[in-house]
Structures are given as C-alpha cells and as structure tokens.
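FAQ: What does a ligand-bound record look like?

Like this one, built around flavin-adenine dinucleotide:
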Amino acid sequence: METAGIAVRNNLEHILYVIEQNAADADEIGQTSPESLQVLRESGLLGTFIPFSYGGLGKNVLEATRLIERLGSVDPSIAIIAFQHMSVISRILEWGTEEQKNKYLPLLASGEWLAASAWSEKGAGANKQNLGTIAQPLGNDKWKVSGEKTFTTGAGLADLYLVLVQTGENEADFLYGNSGQSFFLIETNTLGVSANSRLNLSGMRGSSTGFIEMNNCIVSPDALLGSVGQAPSIISHIRESGMSLGAVSVGISDRVLTLAKAHLIKRNLANNQIFHFKMSELSTLLEASRSLVERAASGNDELSGSLSYQSKVFASEVSEKICRDCQQIMGGGGYMRGQAIERLTRDARAVALMGPVNDLAKEITGREMMI
Ligand SMILES: Cc1cc2nc3c(=O)[nH]c(=O)nc-3n(C[C@H](O)[C@H](O)[C@H](O)COP(=O)(O)OP(=O)(O)OC[C@H]3O[C@@H](n4cnc5c(N)ncnc54)[C@H](O)[C@@H]3O)c2cc1C
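The answer part, i.e. the structure of the complex:
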C-alpha cells in the first residue's frame, strides 16, 4: 500500500513539473498546452472522486480539492479546466441516471473524455437569467437545442458539455438560474455543435475559455440531466458538494508567497523586519483560506453549503491581496511580462469573476443568513 502511495505521489510531482514547465508559454500564446493536458488526462487523477465501480480512484472531494490546489499552484488555467471537469462529474453522480453514470463516468475517470460546463451567455452572465439557448421538444420524443454559450472553460477541448438551456417559461426568478431551465449533457460530436476558444482573456489564458454554439442539435431524452425544469434545484445544490474554486486561489497564494520568499533571500532582504511582518501576515491569510476551503470540502459540517461559496470568495480575495503585496515585495521585476508573479496576478483576478461571481455568492449567502 505504502509503495502504491509513493508511486501516486511521484506521479503527481512529475505531472505538476510538466504543467509548470508549460504554463508561461500557454499564457503567452493564449492556448492550453497540449502536453500539460495530456499528462493530466493520462494520470487518472481527473477521476479522483469517482467511485471505483465507475473506474475512478474512489477518493473524496477533499482529496480532489487538494489536487486542484496543487494544480493551481503550477498553472491556474489547467486547474480550472480540471475543476470544471470535476464539477460535471459531481452533477452526474448526484443527478445522473444509472445509464448516464455507466456511459460517462468511466470515460471521464480515465481522462479519455474531458467535460466542461456551458452555462454563461452574452445576455445571461452572473446570475444565469434570460437564457437565449432554447431546447424545444420535437414530436418524436427528441429535443432540438439551439443557442450560443460564452466563457466556457475547455471550449474545443471537451468531449462532453453540461449545457444550461431554457425548456419552458420564466415564471419565478431565482438568485442563480431561473425557472423553466434544464440541463442537457451534449456530446461534442453531436451534429451542429461547434466550439472556439478565441476569447482573448487577460488571465487564465491557457484555459481555452471560449464559445460553444449549438445549431439545431437534435438530442434524445436521455441527454437530459435531471428532469425537465429541474436546473434551479440542481444549481442550488451544487455547493453542498463542497467543491470550491477557492482551491485554485489557495494554490496561487501558496506559489506567490514562495516566489516572494525566494526573492527576499536572493536580494539579502530576508533579515528585514518589515518583510517578516508582511510574510507572517500573508501566510496567515493563506492558511486561513486553505482551512476554509478544506472545511467546506470535508463535507461533514452543517455549514458546508455556505462555506463552499464563502471559502471561494475569501480565498479569491486573499489571493488577490497576496499577489498585489508580493508584487510590491518583488519590485519592478515582478511587474514584468514573463515573470510567474505577473501571470499569476492576472490569473488570480479571474476567480472572483467565475461562477458564481463573488458579489452574487455574497448575495446568496448573505440573504440566507436573514432567514
Ligand atoms: C476565466 C473565466 C472562466 C469562466 N468559465 C466558465 C465556464 O466554464 N462556464 C460558464 O458557464 N461560465 C464561465 N465563466 C463565466 C462566469 O461564470 C460568469 O458568469 C461571468 O464571468 C459573469 O458574467 P458577465 O461577465 O456577463 O457579468 P454580468 O452578468 O454582466 O455581471 C457583472 C457584474 O455585476 C454584478 N452582478 C451581476 N448580477 C448580480 C447579482 N445577481 N447579484 C450580485 N451581483 C451581481 C457582479 O459584480 C458581476 O461581476 C467564466 C468566466 C471567467 C472570467
């Protein structure tokens, strides 16, 4: 058992090394590194919390969260691709039929298939209201799906998209999602699906975040995840899984503090008391954010649901502060293109803008406190 544990650790260290080596180039050209993605897909780690019975590693969400943190410390773009993949896995585990689990989970566990979430649209951003992507029932039991999604991480890389669509009338507004909405699992090879990752992002430039277009795609009823109109309750249960994008931010914070420490030692500034105070303050914030993210992911806490959003908000705000303060510590060199700190600072900003955006996450958790 111990030997197997060491093998997994060595494998992870090798994967992280390869991903780190490619991160700067991926950022520069604005494309996901094929080599980084390949080592991750072949590692089996993308199936971390898929049960053994479906071909996964049978671990829990906390283990997956720690993996996302490690990925975030070497390349946050790869970390968010992995995070979105795991989010779709969670939804299939929670709401999928046995047929859907048997069909998709082994492929997603082995990394043969990659999954992505296509919810956001140009006219339906933060709170996913007013969707333009429509699924119409056809007389022959099938559905016709049409519309365009934007900001899909892993666009063009994924083999399976979890797509949020309008299937009925907007009758009641929810804070996140709307009534009359449903989820479909749409395979990339479905006729009418096209993708491009041409969004010229400021950070997370190696995440292939882009557009998915569905042009009169015909899908069968077994592509529905959950039942018709069930999307709002699926969305509201997501945080119960404890998965928090905050893990990506914790990884960024950890890496940036390491870079700042190395700089201080190299420049003979490590004995300066002002930097002792600063490094102590920042590492306390890092540990607080890690604790919150891991507490949410442990799932054995009655607060887990709210903690998942709160930890995401806190960890992303902390990582932005750590990036800013460490850029100051690292001086002009830290402000130069090609320096890891500069790239990670741009990447850190994105987490606050990702689903749910921080303001919406605060709105949801704050409102619940008043009940
Ligand atoms: C790097 C990156 C990767 C992403 N990956 C994905 C992905 O894989 N799949 C996907 O579906 N989407 C993804 N998104 C989109 C993301 O989830 C958000 O939906 C999107 O960034 C916000 O939409 P918008 O830009 O249209 O903002 P808008 O909807 O225009 O909102 C602008 C701002 O208004 C405020 N705001 C708006 N509505 C509310 C509200 N109800 N309560 C409180 N404040 C509010 C917030 O501050 C918000 O930032 C990604 C975004 C980024 C930056």
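Follow-up question: can I read anything off the structure? Yes, for example: The two ends are 48 Å apart (CA to CA).
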